[in-house]
Amino acid sequence: MSTHAKTSMRPARDARGFTLVELMVTVAIALFLLGGLLTIVQTVRRASLSQQGLAQLQDEQRFALTVITDAVQSGGYFANPLTDTIGNFGAAPNPAPTTATAAFLAGSAFTGFHTVGAADTAAQDTLATRFMVSPGHGPILCDGTDSSQVGAPVTYTIAFFVAATAAGNQLLCSVNGGAPVALITGVTAMAVYYGVKRDLTFADYNVDTYVTWDQMLAPGDMQSVSAVRVVLTFANPLFVPGQVNPPATITMERVIEVMARAGLHT
């Protein structure tokens, strides 16, 4: 007796694929997951760009204030205290490529400019200082010059100011009235306050008053600047037009002692 293997065959109606509804649901779920993934990627990317922008801003803030600090601290310095005094600084014309900046008074290490009533976040001040360097003694100037490499005592004038350029709002500097050198971009304002002593009861160089340049009393205040307060306003890289937060600008300031006048002098 012969036997035959029985083969089970499903009816054709049972071998079916996905329905249109099932496919649509699957696509919808996939799109939902893909949208979530894209949102996460965009969030991480924005956070990374924000951190990079803030890091760059902090670097620019430190650099700008470091360069200004070097110049301000050197204000009124002279090479040889046995033969030179601040009186060796005679009257000098406007040292900056801006018409508003005042000329140096005789015996004065600083000059500047301030628009009357301008707020710190809108001020377009100019800060200028002068000092003498000698071989082996002198700061790195804002244009990169190593002033300690001079062959004989030399007097330098350094001016800082903010201006709108093709590259944007920049903090510029000028050495001895030369062509401006761009330090950083993104500085929208600079306000400068000069620390002076008006109470002459005690013979010291302590500061009792901070004034803008338009409030300086000549010649006394201009010849007795012991500290300089610089307020820089930067464009906020995280600002989004139309939104209140974060703010459009970030302000940073520093009080800088003038080394030639810091401390007690009797």
How would you explain this protein's 3D organization?
The protein has 266 residues and is α+β, with helices and mostly antiparallel strands. Helices cover 20% and strands 26% of the residues. The protein has one helix spanning 20-73; strands spanning 110-113, 126-133, 154-165, 168-175, 181-185, 187-196, 209-211, 227-235, 249-257. The strands form 2 sheets. The protein has a 5-stranded antiparallel β-sheet, covered by helices on one side. Strand 3 and strand 4 form a beta hairpin. The protein is elongated.
Write a concise synopsis of the structure shown.
By secondary structure, the protein is of the alpha+beta class. It contains one helix and nine strands; from the N terminus they run αβββββββββ.
What is the count of distinct domains?
Answer: 1
Helix content: 10-25%
Query: What is the beta-strand fraction?
Result: 25-35%
Number of DSSP strand runs: 9
Low-pLDDT segments? none
How would you write the strand order of the largest sheet?
Answer: 1-2-3-4-5
Structural class: alpha+beta
Number of helices: 1
Please summarize the sheet with the most strands.
5 strands, antiparallel
Terminal CA distance reads 134 Å
- Rounded Rg: 33 Å
Mean pLDDT: 85
Shape verdict: elongated
Order of helices and strands: HEEEEEEEEE
